[in-house]
Amino acid sequence: MFALSIFFFFFFTPSLSSNNIILFGDAFLSASSIILTRENNCSYQPPLQTTALSSVGRAFFEKPVRFLDPSINATAFSCSFSFTITKTNSCPFGDGFAFLVTSNASSFSLTDGYMGLPPGIQASSDQDSYFAV
């Protein structure tokens, strides 16, 4: 239901910038990192406003990434990244994290739950297909 701040360190050529990353929700760039959620003071929760602590962010690489080399029928894509999820005593909750490959970045939920994936919806075409880890 809630997410903690997750910091990413990607190494791209060209460099990580708003020109090559599409950000959704609460995600933002900070130096060489993508921060997906707001930093919240979880020790204070306004009455009847549990959504005030909720924070969801997505980041997608803007350009298509060649995933399959049809000439040899093999994947031509590799990815290496590191991330940190830091639990604090005042914020002991979070939904999770998913690495996603999709053909349509705008078709995914920007709300809590399902880690941004469509809840129980079948892809209607090859253009809406995805896989996530």
UniProtKB/TrEMBL annotation:
Gene3D superfamilies: 2.60.120.200. One of its GO terms (molecular function) is kinase activity. It comes from the Eukaryota. Residues 1-18 form the signal peptide. The keyword Protease does not apply. Keywords: Kinase, Lectin, Receptor, Signal, Transferase. InterPro entries: ConA-like_dom_sf, Legume_lectin_dom, Leguminous_Lectin. Residues 9-133 form the Legume lectin domain. The keyword Protein biosynthesis does not apply. Belongs to the leguminous lectin family. This is L-type lectin-domain containing receptor kinase S.6. It comes from Sesamum calycinum. The lineage of its organism: Eukaryota, Viridiplantae, Streptophyta, Embryophyta, Tracheophyta.
